[in-house]
């Protein structure tokens, strides 16, 4: 049983570690920020650098805000992105815009340590460029991931065979979650990462979680050995 009494998912979904269940999304955000800081300290002690891929979407906002005040040594941290939407730089709907606003503009990470996905170039050109960035920094130390209501993660969607690619970064041209054009880390990069941490909150995620417990091979379920931070609403499907 996890600290909250939930049944560890390893009994039901063999590809992940036991999940941590939190009363609400704020408790989840605080705990996730603490876990990230601990993994950063370990990576920097062992290898002198912490290579972190940030997730997009709404769920990580509060975690990122909590990370502003954490104990991470940002001078020895490199920031990557799990995926990016093919929109102009600075577009409010870009994942890097959200990360800049909630975290990166508020911590002393050297600008040269932030590796944006050049998604404004379009999926194919941006994926090729990001492959060149990723090639020399494998494995990452931590990939943060969200999960959509359909079981997607990063920009790897269930009905898009791009998650079968072995490429370090992949172009996505028909994402069902707008915008259709995206770039994503490839599944192999997610699985090669030393640590993977899913942040899943909200009753709308319950059905996808339930389907994965029943064996659905969503892209989120294909990330092996991940830690799952889930709030009670996502676990139960009940709001508030
Ligand atoms: C994106 C993200 C995507 C996100 C999930 C969950 O571009 O939106 O990369 O994978 O993590 O869709 O999104 P929410 O956290 O907003 O529910």
Structural account:
With 240 residues, the protein is α/β, with parallel strands linked by helices. It has a single domain (16-203, 223-236), classed as Rossmann fold. Helices cover 29% and strands 18% of the residues. The protein is built from 7 helices and 9 strands; from the N terminus they run E-H-E-H-E-E-H-H-E-E-E-H-E-H-E-H. It has helices at 25-47, 61-67, 95-102, 123-134, 187-192, 206-213, 232-236, and strands at residues 16-22, 50-54, 77-81, 83-85, 142-145, 169-172, 182-185, 195-200, 226-231. The strands form 2 sheets. It has a 6-stranded parallel β-sheet. Strand 2, helix 2 and strand 3 form a beta-alpha-beta unit. The model is unreliable at 1-12 (pLDDT under 50).
Mean pLDDT: 93
What's the tally of helices? 7
Anisotropy-based shape: globular
Q: Give the percentage of residues in beta strands.
A: 15-25%
Helix content: 25-40%
Structural class: alpha/beta
Tell me the total number of β-strands. Answer: 9
Tally of distinct domains = 1
Over all CA atoms, what is the radius of gyration?
17 Å
Low-pLDDT parts are 1-12
- Spatially, the strands of the biggest sheet line up as 1-9-8-5-2-3
Spell out the helices and strands N to C: EHEHEEHHEEEHEHEH
CATH arch. level architecture: 3-Layer(aba) Sandwich
CATH class: Alpha Beta
CATH topology group: Rossmann fold
Q: What composes the largest sheet?
A: 6 strands, parallel
Distance between the termini: 23 Å
Bound molecules: 6-phosphogluconic acid
Please sum up the structure shown.
This protein has 240 residues and is of the alpha/beta class. It has helices spanning 25-47, 61-67, 95-102, 123-134, 187-192, 206-213, 232-236, and strands spanning 16-22, 50-54, 77-81, 83-85, 142-145, 169-172, 182-185, 195-200, 226-231.
């Amino acid at each position: 049983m996890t600290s909250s009494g939930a049944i560890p998912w390893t009994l039901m979904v063999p590809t992940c570690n036991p999940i941590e269940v939190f009363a609400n999304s704020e408790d989840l955000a605080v705990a996730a920020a603490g876990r990230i800081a601990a993994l950063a300290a370990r990576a920097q002690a062992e290898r002198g650098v912490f290579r972190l891929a940030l997730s997009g979407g709404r769920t990580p906002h509060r975690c990122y805000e909590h990370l502003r005040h954490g104990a991470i040594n940002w001078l020895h941290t490199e920031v990557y992105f799990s995926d990016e939407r093919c929109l102009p730089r600075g577009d409010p709907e870009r994942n890097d815009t959200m990360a800049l606003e909630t975290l990166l503009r508020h911590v002393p990470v050297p600008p040269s340590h932030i590796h944006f996905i050049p998604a404004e170039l379009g999926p194919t050109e941006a994926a090729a460029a990001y492959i060149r960035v990723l090639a020399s920094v494998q494995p990452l130390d931590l990939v943060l991931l969200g999960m959509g209501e359909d079981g997607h993660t990063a920009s790897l969607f269930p009905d898009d065979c791009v998650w079968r690619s072995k490429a370090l970064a992949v172009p996505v041209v028909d994402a069902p979650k707008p915008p259709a054009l995206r770039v994503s880390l490839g599944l192999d990069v997610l699985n090669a990462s030393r640590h993977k941490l899913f942040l899943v909150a909200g009753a709308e995620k319950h059905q996808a979680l339930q389907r994965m417990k029943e064996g659905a091979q969503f892209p989120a379920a294909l990330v092996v050995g991940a830690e799952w931070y889930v709030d009670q609403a996502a676990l139960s499907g009940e709001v508030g």
